[in-house]
Amino acid sequence: MSVPVAAAAASASAAPRTAMVLAAGLGTRMRPLTDTLPKPLVPVGGKPLLDHVLDRLDGAGVETVVVNVHFFAGKIEAHLAGRSRPRIVVSDERDTLLGTGGGIVKALPLLGDAPFFLVNADTLWIDGVRANLDSLARMFDPARMDALLLLAATSTSVGYAGRGDYLMTADGRLKRRAEREVVPFVYSGVALLSPALFADAPEGAFPLTTLFDRAEAAGRLHGLRLEGVWMHVGTPEAIAAAERAILASAA
């Protein structure tokens, strides 16, 4: 079914009011800090990673955030109980860790029928002139996209030394990196997703990249370059680099 241009533009400009934060991971690369603390609660710049994310979402006008929990679930729930905004709904994965894809599928009934933000709990970034979540909301067009990923330039990211994740075409479509290829963009862990992405999704635990690959094959996986600085906080050593970047941005 075709979508009128005006309707598509209106949809593209509508800011999501719901989001999901992936907070159920084991945080093994962050040991020994995660021997006693879940990675989302590891402090960076005097604030837990999870609060950096929730504050960004609150600033973007998100009203309800679904947070999935597994590792040290009780500690995350106790921390979230101290927040009044945004409204938090917990998706409990204590019994079975479902992976990034399966965790979202489990939470879909809590997220509603409209497109929603997805943010990894350990994602940290500094906005440029324009807030990146606002830019995602303005660019997203459900008539053409099932997923819009926020991509960071590998050359300017803090704490990242990998080969990148995606090539991006002139019209914003994405192509995943081949095994030995080096590409300019890394997925930042921030996206705007349509519930349509999860149609006929696998059951049980699976990675979200399974659905990204399917959307790519259909020409419905798009990207937006992050304005500002993305920080890859994957290890204890990376925390200091992220904190320096935060201090420099505030100077």
From TrEMBL:
Q: Which residues form the MobA-like NTP transferase domain?
A: 19-127
Asked whether the UniProt record includes Transferase among its keywords, one would answer: yes
UniProt KW keywords: Magnesium, Nucleotidyltransferase, Transferase
Q: Supply the name of the protein.
A: Nucleotidyltransferase family protein
Organism, as annotated: Rhodoplanes azumiensis
